[in-house]
């Protein structure tokens, strides 16, 4: 049975943030709000938790997972970025974008696309996420909370609890945060490519 925390979207309660981070550190799977939709998250290095998320969403090994970061200062640890790419990232973060980049060896192989060795990087504009990441001190492994057979993410935390209370360890109710997934920009090659149009404005990348 999952826990259910109601966390203030602008002034997150530090006690609840600490408890949520402890659940992550102990291998838990959480549902949490971002700046455009709710997401599933777990500790970066926990294989069992990643497998649980794959099972919930029925994902195969070709799915590109995303590392949710608090800022770009640690991006060089997990992704290979040149100066031009970094300037682009800086201009569009925080925001509703996922950037696909070549991964470094710091990223566990099981999180990568098996052929392309890429990883998604995301810096959401959301106070709850910022508080979680600050307390955790490293990225959260994440994917949008889109159920199998659906095109849009779930939006109601109570519905999430009803559906997934036996499959996740924590549902964070951070209020309504939208129902549109991120815009996905592939930056592996010299010219950025829009893979998916979502909540972030993609005109610049076309």
TrEMBL record:
The record, for Pfam families, names: Sua5_yciO_yrdC
Query: Cross-referenced InterPro entries, in alphabetical order?
Result: DHBP_synth_RibB-like_a/b_dom, Sua5-like_dom, SUA5_domain
Domain YrdC-like residues, every copy: 14-200
Q: Note the PANTHER family from the entry.
A: DHBP SYNTHASE RIBB-LIKE ALPHA/BETA DOMAIN-CONTAINING PROTEIN, THREONYLCARBAMOYL-AMP SYNTHASE
Protein name as annotated: L-threonylcarbamoyladenylate synthase
Record organism: Marinobacterium maritimum
């Amino acid at each position: 049975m999952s826990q259910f925390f109601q966390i203030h979207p602008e002034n997150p309660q530090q006690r609840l943030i600490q408890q949520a981070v402890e659940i992550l550190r102990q291998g838990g799977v959480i549902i949490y709000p971002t700046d455009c939709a709710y997401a599933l998250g777990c500790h970066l290095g926990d294989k069992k938790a990643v497998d649980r998320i794959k099972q919930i969403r029925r994902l195969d090994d070709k799915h590109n997972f995303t590392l949710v970061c608090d800022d770009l200062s640690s991006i060089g640890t997990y992704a290979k970025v040149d100066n031009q790419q970094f300037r682009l990232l800086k201009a569009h973060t925080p925001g509703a974008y996922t950037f696909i980049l070549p991964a470094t060896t710091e990223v566990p192989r099981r999180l990568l696309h098996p052929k392309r060795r890429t990883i998604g990087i995301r810096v959401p504009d959301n106070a709850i996420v910022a508080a979680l990441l600050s307390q955790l001190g490293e990225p959260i492994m994440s994917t949008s909370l889109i159920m199998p057979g659906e095109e849009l993410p779930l939006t109601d935390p109570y519905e999430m609890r009803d559906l997934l209370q036996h499959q996740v360890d924590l549902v964070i109710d951070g209020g309504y945060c939208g129902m549109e997934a991120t815009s996905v920009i592939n930056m592996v090659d010299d010219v950025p490519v829009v893979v998916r149009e979502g909540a972030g404005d993609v005109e610049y990348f076309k």
